[in-house]
Known about the structure:
- 28% of the residues lie in helices and 28% in strands.
- By secondary structure, the protein is an alpha/beta fold.
Amino acid sequence: MTKVLIVDDESPVREAVKLLGEWERFGVKAVLEAKNGLEAKALLPTRRTTSTVRSASRTAR
């Protein structure tokens, strides 16, 4: 099963990517969401994904 993980801190951006993506056309069966890298990292061991769509900006630490 092909799964995609969308990672962005802004809920409207995640929702737009989810709605505008032609997921079925590319064989994607599940679209997962995470609001940050830590949440995404926590999802990966239990919900292996094929692809990840993430925000290009990063916060300096």
